Hints:
Strand order of the largest sheet of chain A: 3-9-10-16-13-12-11-24-27-23-22
Mean pLDDT of chain A: 94
Low-confidence stretches of chain A: 1-18
Distance between the termini of chain A: 32 Å
Oligomer: homodimer
Shape of chain A: globular
Number of strands of chain A: 27
Amino acid sequence: MSNPNASAKPAKGAPQQASDGITPRARDYGQWYLDVVKRGDLAEHSSVRGCMVIKPHGYAIWERLQRELDDRFKATGHSNAYFPIFIPLSLLAKEEEHAAGFAKECAVVTHYRLKAVDGKVGVDPESKLEEPLIVRPTSETIIWNQYKNWIQSYRDLPILVNQWANVVRWEMRTRLFLRTAEFLWQEGHTAHATEAEAREEVSRMLEVYADVAENVMAVPVVRGHKTEGERFAGAVDTQCIEGMMQDGKALQMGTSHYLGQNFAKSADVKFLNKEGQLEYVHATSWGVSTRLIGALIMTHSDDNGLVLPPKLAPVQVVVIPIYKTAEEQAATTAEANAVADALKAKGIRVKVDDREGMQPGAKYYEWERKGVPVRIEVGPRDLEKGSLCLVRRFVIENEGEAEQELRKRKKQFVPRQEAIDGLPALLDTLQKELLERARKIREKKTRVIDTLEDFEKFFKEEGGGFAWVHWAGGRAEEEEMAKRYETSIRCIPFDDQIPEAARGAGTCILTGKPSERRVLMAKAY
Amino acid sequence: MSNPNASAKPAKGAPQQASDGITPRARDYGQWYLDVVKRGDLAEHSSVRGCMVIKPHGYAIWERLQRELDDRFKATGHSNAYFPIFIPLSLLAKEEEHAAGFAKECAVVTHYRLKAVDGKVGVDPESKLEEPLIVRPTSETIIWNQYKNWIQSYRDLPILVNQWANVVRWEMRTRLFLRTAEFLWQEGHTAHATEAEAREEVSRMLEVYADVAENVMAVPVVRGHKTEGERFAGAVDTQCIEGMMQDGKALQMGTSHYLGQNFAKSADVKFLNKEGQLEYVHATSWGVSTRLIGALIMTHSDDNGLVLPPKLAPVQVVVIPIYKTAEEQAATTAEANAVADALKAKGIRVKVDDREGMQPGAKYYEWERKGVPVRIEVGPRDLEKGSLCLVRRFVIENEGEAEQELRKRKKQFVPRQEAIDGLPALLDTLQKELLERARKIREKKTRVIDTLEDFEKFFKEEGGGFAWVHWAGGRAEEEEMAKRYETSIRCIPFDDQIPEAARGAGTCILTGKPSERRVLMAKAY
């Protein structure tokens, strides 16, 4: 085991003991999640209901995600801009369906001044605003109100703009990263001359999200359309990527919407086309948020804490000198720094942990909890032998493998130069293994299901997961399924997303009506 | 002149004609500023009172500034984090002086839901919050409330955290970038075991700001302390950097505060020191905002629009193919792309403007208004001669220089390879020239003044600028000066910031009392 100080090794299957303050998944998955967030120093609750504090380690992961996303946005021709956090109530109300969709979760600013009343600071009643302002839950309405000034003719199109911002949706039940009243996100808002161009943009950006999910976060996703009931308020089509968490639940990781001409109509944004006629502009919007960090945690982490894919790890390698005497300290610390410099020269993000007055074991613990992919221990014997001790944050368990074998694969003594030269490849390997492992977990928890009986058994007895089922119901039937099984249609997947065994026509699992193709059902976060 | 389509060349001194929609500075400096912002596509007003929209070109400049600042924050050991946008009223009110300082400009959230009333969407009166929430005007109170959980012993110190965020200060008179109800900024919040360490941090970060101002923005600054009356609400010491705009007014470009133990006391944040005693923690905070873009504009831009220092220019070089026939178009566009590729390989940010159906002159205009430092024109004759036409966005005017000479320096035909190889050096030169020019303007508008008579003459007849004066007054006297001359003490400069001619003791310009050293007085934005 990687954790040398663990007092008790949890029994396989149902560990009874928390490891380093982290509740085992098998005992309580929800508490495990909170423990990983807390012990990994990722985030914490604030004194404001539902608002979280993203701590430096959590924010550093978000910064890496931002960089990966932003580079792709720019490579596909987008620019960033910034629009006001406040939306006048009348503006939000313009697109009716949109307003109805967000009405129940709006933070409302009504006053603009405080004053001392009886020695206590309170709201100045005389500072009441003529019109209340909504703290943006999303920015379609305020942005389209500006686009009106930006667009006259087809020459002004397309507009390809993205915004990095905070948004507020008043949530009653919150959970760090997954569901908070305030969260950080990006929202792309584009304007196009034709429906075809806009729909192409929607697909392009969904694929950017899928690329980041799979090739950066190492989370495999299913791409598809949302049903009418799950669509973004005001959208004509909502596309999404859905990941599966270790517990078999789905998590919506990103959405890309074709908004048709709805927002152009409510904001009255027309353009002169090449034929000299006035037309309404076609819109898209697309977004991902700090929620992705929740997906990252629930896909890869284990009972020792956070596991990070190397591409997102703020620190990819930590080097820890081990010593007893002052002489050993000088020698191993010098070697740790030399190794770190050699790795930095290869573009690896590396940190030397030479904190004094702290046992090596406590350092191992801490960096494991923080998900650092590789640890290098440098002790006096390593110096003698000219080797380095490489410890991986995780290894994929082979079925039936002895504990000893596993440990051997996890912790290896490698000749110094070989270890340094091999590290970029090792990080690549770890990145690939995480995606591979996530794929296997998903496969194991995915079923092609044809009867309601099997469906019930899957979700109520077998732990659930992704169910490929035929469907011909409407919104009422979807609600019926939600009531009975707490499941929802995660998406109507694109053709190429449907596994071989799930293709072809059949009959709806609930109504028995004929169905052209299967949909993806699951419980969801 | 660089603008081939200009119909009338403005007379020197008092141009009567607006160039390409930009009001000349000599006619109306305030309107010129707004025109530069508008015609440079930097920002615009929104439908929310006092809130601006930062357009893609403006935001791209902000992104470059962010990168320069953030790299320096990280190099000095800081990490980014994120804290809630809302502050409970009772929390804001804890530090009395701080609360009093911001009370008059607080946006207050009082409700969290909308509902349809008589077919119209309105605020749901039943969703009133038990405690109002303030949209953060700055985050000391909410952050120190969290630090309480982070700090137990000296081992937890220092905490070196920065936040990139939006903040809201309800302003009655707003001006794009310079003063807006919502703005973007960074706020550093650090916690230290000793006063000495905290004060060292305050100085370190002020110097980071000065470095970015002078070596990235090319704006020379004076470093110093604020007087008691100008101090940040809740601070023990506020340090600042002050730049001079072309019109002689000062602009505060960044502040760094030693907060003493004030916030630690109001949030009750104590730590166990090495001697095992409980002590209050020492705090600093420091920030710069999108206001810096206003400083950038007012320091360097001219009657043709924005002028950008190369280090901050999102596009450093624009390459424009010139042609009449389709054959020429193919040849010059190919050459433009080849030149751009060669420049990109040198790390230069370059754009080829090959838009069709647009006259070259219109393109020149547009890129001048956007401040691009160098334009390269590629015409058929350049191809023949194997040369490139390099046009600088600006040249420093030498006194008495003939218009023709100036034009020659601005637009040069250079052999192709020489032009490409020389571009990094040319950009360096332009960067240096901007700083040099700004220094000269500042020198020209700076006076060492000993009598109130001269002071009045300087500000009421000679256009004003920076005045080095002896001062022994208090807050009341400062207000008196503000009332009479609209001036304020910009700072009590550090020793090394005072020019030779302004050193030594003297008598206060207003009270006649003895004074140890001069302060810097000016009108300010």
